Each structure stands twice: as structure tokens, then as C-alpha cells.
Amino acid sequence: METKSPTVNEAEFQRLLQHLVNKTETVRLGGGKSRIAKEHEKGKLTARERIAYLTDADSEFLEIGQFAADGMYEEEGGCPSAGVVTGIGYVSGRMCVIVANDATVKAGAWFPMTAKKNLRAQEVAMENRLPIIYLVDSAGVFLPMQNEIFPDKEHFGRQFRNNARMSSMGIIQVAAIMGSCVAGGAYLPIMSDEAMIVDKTGSIFLAGSYLVKAAIGEVVDNETLGGATTHCEISGVTDNKYANDQECLDAIKKIFDKIGAGEKAGFDRKEPVAPAKNVAELYDVFPTDRVKPYDMNEVLARLVDNSDWEEYKADYGKTLICATARIDGWAVGIIANQRKIVKTKKGEMQMGGVIYSDSADKAARFIMNCNQRKIPLVFLQDVSGFMVGSKAEHGGIIKDGAKMVNAMANSVVPKFTFILGNSYGAGNYAMCGKAYDPRLIFSWPTAQMAVMSGASAAKTLLQIKVSALQKSGNVISAEEENQLLKEITDKYNEELSPYYAAARLWVDGVIDPLETRKIISMGIEAANHAPINERFNVGVIQT
Predict the structure, then answer these.
(1) Could you tell me which CATH number the domain at 31-257 has?
(2) How is the chain split into domains, by residue range?
(3) Which pLDDT tens digit goes with each residue over 435-456?
(4) Which terms in the GO cellular component ontology are assigned (predicted)?
(5) Helix (H, G, I), strand (E, B) or coil at 182
(6) 279-447+507-529 domain in CATH 3.90.226.10?
(7) What is the pTM of this model?
(8) How far is CA 300 from the centre of its chain?
(9) Helix 112-128 crosses helix 158-169 at what angle (to 10 degrees)?
């Protein structure tokens, strides 16, 4: 049987996917093979091994923040995955959030991005009313950067506030102390519903033996100070001790095996059906060239069940596709940027990827309808921004854009965002960027996120730089100007990268497009644990 040669686009997509695989493999090693070996020598499992042992066999684990801190803290030796593994998984059949410190990375110390990632995991648990499991193994705050992690609202201390808030909300929290647990970090497991500890390797105290000696002159070893025997038999701080990691994780499984069922939001689901069109064809129908037009309908046909959807106002506001469909059986409302050039009934040409007044107006109404019908929203971004110019301004583009943002921001149904290609300027906002609380937000390897495109930004920044040099009396040659443009462009293009965004948790991760359906399905399943108690109210709508 003759095999079809890949197209140029498919070949480039495979190159991007291989880069994703390579980065993933590196990140999953944490602090490296030698550090993993040292944990094993202590009789400990690594963070990822603990999660694999804890979660149900053959179940999915949706990692959140895999590339957090990627390329950051290089002067400190790096901090892969921000030194903590987080995500949504299944334990004894129960969907939950799992947070596992990675002791192979700086002994699990907390960097600024570690705090941000932990808070993101708690946010996922709180929004979706999911139980959360903490597998604690951390040396505490990374002291050289304490000023960037300690006192502010979204810093280290916020997690304990969240512990207390989750408890009051009835969200189950279970913690296992499987290594170090020191200083302020000691409050996290002890503010959980149940705290267990691994004998000999787990320890918990407000101050270790060295600090105790320095502070009050007492000489005591760490095991006596805060080991499993001390806290299970003397202080009562922890509930039960276990001989090793496996026994401790088995105990967590037994806890989750006996949890009662909670309320549901009631999102509609039917038997899942695969798309009628081959999902792998996404690698060909979606162009890696970010300026090339394409038909977003061809993407939808490879994402939705049976390649079947009902489009809302198909002949109006054509630069945005609004449609109801099913993804893995779940009913969804889709808002997707159309990237091909379209023609209005009046004969006007509209650029693909741009939000015009008519498309913004249509999207606002569609979002309201989905809220009325309790249908989760999925945003597929490939957006250059809103239309500009005198015609757009005179037509009220700001007013119509505000209407769309208002409806989206006030939505009470869960929102899920995927950045397929461009995500520029206010278009990122209107299409439910990170600032608008999507339950999950992921990028494809083809994504680019910034205020404007690389070419436009670089030329603008060059003009500013050249003007500043001229004001100071410096005249630069055409050759120097070209070199300056290259430097600006290279730096800006690096910041456009989806990995740059993922490193800073502007997105939850970078994924193979074939993972999109699974993530939407798991996201809605998670959201279905949180009944909608808030009434949809858009306030004052600009008309």
C-alpha cells in the first residue's frame, strides 16, 4: 500500500510537535537523572512517580503548568516545571486536583513561579469544587528570592488563605508529608482535612534543627524535632504514619474510595462520537504560516462530534463563527475566529482573524444565549484584533467590542480557551484570554501571543529607538538600523512563543492539537462538579 508523502505544512507541524516532545521529555526529568537516583536511594518516589502510583490505572492525568518557569531562573540553575507537578486526575474513580512537590528540583524549594503555579492549582480546585491532594516534599521558600515570593497578595501566603477558604466551601483537602515540610509551608498540610506522614523520610516543623540551635540554643535532631513518630504519637499534628511512599498513597486511595457524591451543574452530555473527518488532518488544514488564510470550518470539522454543528447567524458577522455542537458528547458553544477573507451582503471585504462590529455584536448575543441555556463556552483563538480606521470607529467598533467583552466576562457558564494561532491585543481579551478566567487555557505549538504581531511591533519599536538616538545627536547608518531591527525582532519573536507564555502561566500548557478534544471533555467534566449558583447578569450593555 502506497503511503502519502507529508505536505510541506504537515512536515513543519511535525517539526513543531517534535520540539514539543523534546521539551516535554526534558521537563519530566525534573532536576535530572542523578537527582532522581538520589531520591530512590532514600526509598522515595519522585513527584511524577507518586502521581502515577496514586492515580487510577489507564486513566488520564491532565497536567497543568508543565512548562512553568521554562527558561527562567537560569542564573540559579533553572527550575523545571517550577519545581512542582500539578494537574487533574482520577483517584479511586474520583476526579481531583493533585499537587506534588518535585524534590529533585532545588529540594522542592518555592520560587516565585512555584507559588503562582500552586495558586493556579488551588484555583482549579475552587472553581470546579474538586477535591485536592497535596503530596508535600519541599525545603520551603527559596531564600535568595524571598522578596518576590513572601509578602504580596498572590505570593506564598495566599495558599494558606485558600486552604481555609476551600475548607469553608466544603472542598476536600488531603495532604501527605513525604519529605521536608518546613516553616510557613507546614501550615498547608495541617490546614487540610487529613494529614498523613511517611516514617523516617517525612518531617514537619516551623524551624529545623539548625535554626532552633541558632534561635534558642537547643540541640535536637530533625527526626526528634518533627518526624513521624513525634507528630503521630506526641504532638498529634499528623493523623497517621506509613512505612513508605506506597503505603501512604494507598491510604489516600482508601480515603477517596469512600467519599460521597456531590451536586452537579447539569451540563448536557450524550454518547461521544468521533469527528467524521480525520482528526490528524488538522496538521494539514491548519497552516503553520501565521499569515496564511484558511477556513476555520475545516478545523471545527476535525474537533466536534460527527463533524456536525449548528451555526448561529452564519451569514452575518462572518469573521467570527458562533456554533453549538458536541465535543466528546458534551454540549458546547463555540466562538472561533474565521481566518479566510469574507464578503458581506453589501459587498464589503472583511479580513480574516479581525473582529468587526457585526461579528462582535453576533458573538455577544450568542454568548448570552449559551448562558441562558447552560452551555459551556469554547473559544478558539486566531485573532489579530478589532478592526481599526475611521469607518470602523464611526460604526461604533469600541461599543460593539465592549458589548462582546461584557457578555463574555460576565458569563456564569464555564469557559475554555485554546490559542491556535495569533492572539493579539484586545482580540486576546474578547476571545477569553487568561484575564477573563477561562477554566482551562492551552496553546497549540503554532500559537503567538502579544500586543501585536512581531513584524508590526519590531518596526514600531525600531522607530522609537531611532528617534531617541537622533534626539541625543546620534546618526545611525542603514546597516546599523537593519542590525537593530534584527535584534528587536529576535527578542520580540522569542516573547511571541507559546512556551514563553506557558513559562509564565499565561496559558496552562502547550499541546498537540489532537489533545484538544480530551482537554475540553475533562474540563467540562471537572466544571460539572460545581453547580452554577450565580445569575447571569451583564449589567449595562452598550447599545
Answers:
(1) 3.90.226.10
(2) 31-257, 279-447+507-529, 452-496
(3) 999 999 999 999 999 876 666 7
(4) methylcrotonoyl-CoA carboxylase complex
(5) strand
(6) yes
(7) 0.94
(8) 22
(9) 10
